[in-house]
Amino acid sequence: MAHLNEDLATRLADVDAKIADAARAAGRDPAELTRIVVTKFHPASMVRELYELGVRDVGENRHQEAAAKAAEVTDLDIAWHFVGQLQSNKARAVRRYASAVHSVDRGSLVDALAARDPGDGLLDCFVELNLTDDASRGGVQPAEADRLAEHIAATPGLRLRGVMAVAPLHTEPRGAFALVRRVSDRIRAIVPEATAISAGMSDDFTEAINEGATHLRIGTAITGKRSTTG
Known about the structure:
By secondary structure, the chain is an alpha/beta fold. The chain has helices at about 1-25, 45-50, 65-70, 90-95, 105-115, 145-155, 175-190, 205-210, 220-225, and strands at about 35-40, 55-60, 80, 100-105, 125-130, 160-165, 195-200, 215-220. The protein has one domain: TIM Barrel. Helix 6 packs across helix 7. The longest helix is centred in the first third of the chain and has 24 residues, at about 1-25. The protein is globular.
């Protein structure tokens, strides 16, 4: 376990240094960026190790795995970010542990997320953009983002934070993130407080930072290779 901690600490420090360098190179303050460690396929024990290393923002892609991990570490002050595709019938359950959902991509999901249990606070929401022509992928087309953003902003219990996107494979990520930034600017003209951009993963966070990303969703570069059996 000590060896794993050492490796994890090294990877985390390396990524954080690269984030800080990229931010400064872009003329930005590294402190304005939120680094979310995505722990998909890794156990709750890693979340504890990350917490000991100062991590407070953790991301998960699947509700079943996220709920189980969150239940194991209720003693920790963790902000859980749900970053995967979300079925509407799981929305209320996700609200019980998540502080943010980065993958809001349809009006029916907005309405489902609005159903709160007593004591639930505001849920931060990001409009997920689909930057491809594949309609089966999650996200709304950029042209449709404004209407969904207005829907979130008008829904009690939800707070529109901004936009989220994944750069398509086999494309130049800087160009993809430039489009995300343009959509973000458009939405901010409608909802001024929706200033956040959730973009950038292990292989492209530098390009995302250059285009204004505020929330970076980084998994493998910090956690190491994932085991789907463990």
